[in-house]
Amino acid sequence: MEEGVSCMYRIYNQGERNKMAEAIRGKGVISGIAIGKIMLAGQNLDGYLVNYQPESKEVESKKAQDALTAVAETLRENIDRLQKQNMVEQAAIMEAHRMMVQDPMMAQKIEEKLEEDANAPQAVLKAAEEQAQMFEMMEDEYFAARAVDLRDVGKRVAKYILGVKEPELGDEKVILCGREIEPSVIAGMPTDKIAGVILGSGSTTAHAVIIAKARAIPTIVGLNKEDRIDKIADGDHVIMDGEEGKILVNPSEEELAGYNEKIKKQQELAAHYAQLKDLPAVTTDGVKVDLMANIGTHMDVDNALKYGAKGVGLFRSEFVFMGRQDIPNEEDQFKAYKEAVEKCQGNLCVIRTMDIGGDKPLPYLNIPEEENPFLGYRAVRISLQRKDLFLPQLKAILRAGVYGKVGIMVPMIINVAEFKKVKEFIEEAKLELAHEGKAYAEDVQVGIMVETPAAAVMTPVLAKYVDFFSIGTNDLVQYTLACDRGNANIAELYNHFNPAVLQLIQRTITSARENGIWAGMCGEMASDPNAAVILMAMGISELSMSAPSIPRVKEKIRNISSTKAKEILADVMKMEDGDEIKAYLSKVL
Does the keyword Coiled coil belong to this entry (predicted)? Predict the structure, then answer.
């Protein structure tokens, strides 16, 4: 890093060195300080498209088909490389891209566009854009962010047809910058060449951000507002602070020297965190909290274990259902769940049943569009009405339980009647498996996500029927505060320290302990080290989060006593404002 800084010194003349940098603010989503040269991501293809000379429809169709095949093969090679390098999360994302490239619907859309205009690269881009726009109209932030992936796939195929080469990297580290950055750009670059990522869009669920998080690359988002991103040019040298969301464009020598000291401390901290991997998350007076990982596919488990995860607190099974033309059968699901369970090496693997709704693009479910999908036909509400979906999934999870310790977690439960129906389905699944002579686990725990105010209020009753609670704060905060977490205009209202949210969380944890079951959390709040302290004081048993967050949370828990944490909690629960609570915790912790 020092070598990179000295290289930057050389680019300034004396006048420039004395001039303070322009500061730009965004939203820091992955902490860390980075210094590097800006590489604008996302090549503009307009010039190539203008100069392209199309041939007959038959020839253009063959060009498109050949490009789809070639790109799919390149992606397969990238996936193999990433898996060999243990970059499992990036490999999973590239696998999703490969499935998009090979999706018959994509090929069909391209042929439709070729009928309108026999121009292969334009047809590919238009087909991808049409599908991307469909994703963008969806209410769910995660699935809306997949529009970037579709455009990425379309652009890769079009570039192959046009013969466009990827930009070459020099010796200096780069900071990738763009309104949207194709996930394949980051996944295809060596980690040691990427100093940081700056995104115009504000989505924290974009695959570009997920890949950056898996590689612990400092990332800042949300610069599209007021066109702040336009102030950053290709080749600019910048300092970015992923903790504060601060970007210094063409910094002075003095600013560079100051941040170089911060980078040294950052490197020392990373080395310190690595030493915590095998240590328990236990307070100075012996109170233990299990730190688990949230995963999207079985391939994510290896990465989670590297950060010291003690199992999986949330396996988002909807990923098994995505990128397909039909419902995954029992055998396909069993293989995915079994592999995740085995990799947990005897630790708990909690598999959430399909959390899909009218806002998510699974055409084979034939779910009608809804005005407000978050309040509509989704998750367990679909499962209980679709035995063809629910029974094979339950059978697959029960079978996977033979290979380790498994929990079934049901999303969007709001009353006891729903949970009783779920248990009836589980018993039916067991009977079918016994009749078919298939081995299954009898001791699988069955719990619910507490993600609605209704469920939180009813936890004293629900606790009598379930084996565990897992608090899904992403939706619980949203529903409790009537605040869409993806709406930038009201982003300041979305606060997991809001007293109303804290009271519902405390009620849930208390209900669990009074009824002899465990309570965990799998929402974003679990990855907040300061929040972890008060959650531990409330009596939470487990916290599940993105794997890179585990060391920071572990350190915070290991450096405080439960007695002190309870004193802090008592102060917090007297406060009347979420921002006041957040500031107080930052001060005392």
Answer: yes
Q: Is 207 a catalytic residue?
A: yes
Residue 524 pLDDT grade (very low, low, confident, very high; cuts 50, 70, 90): confident
Whether 352 has a binding-site annotation, put simply, is yes
Say how many CA atoms lie within 13 Å of 188 toward its Cβ: 17
Where are the domains positioned within the chain?
22-41+167-261, 45-162, 281-364+372-588
* pLDDT 10s digits, 217-246: 899 998 877 678 888 988 899 999 998 899
Fold of 22-41+167-261: Glucose Oxidase; domain 1 (3.50.30)
Beta strand extents in 332-472 (DSSP E only): 348-352, 405-410, 445-450, 468-471
Task: Name the pTM for this structure.
Answer: 0.69
CA atoms within 13 A on the CB side of 540: 31
Looking at the domain that runs over 281-364+372-588, which CATH code has it been given?
3.20.20.60
**Candidate list 177, 344, 349, 522, residue with the active-site label:** 522
For residue 474, say whether it is annotated as part of any ligand binding site: yes
SS3 (DSSP) at 272: helix
pLDDT tops 80 at residue 171:
no
Give 15's pLDDT tier (boundaries 50, 70, 90): very low
Q: Which of 97, 177, 207, 496 does the annotation list as catalytic? A: 207
Q: Are 173 and 37 in contact (CB under 8 A)?
A: yes
Indicate the fold that domain 45-162 takes in CATH.
Enzyme I; Chain A, domain 2 (1.10.274)
> Distance (Å, rounded) from C-alpha 126 to C-alpha 275?
50
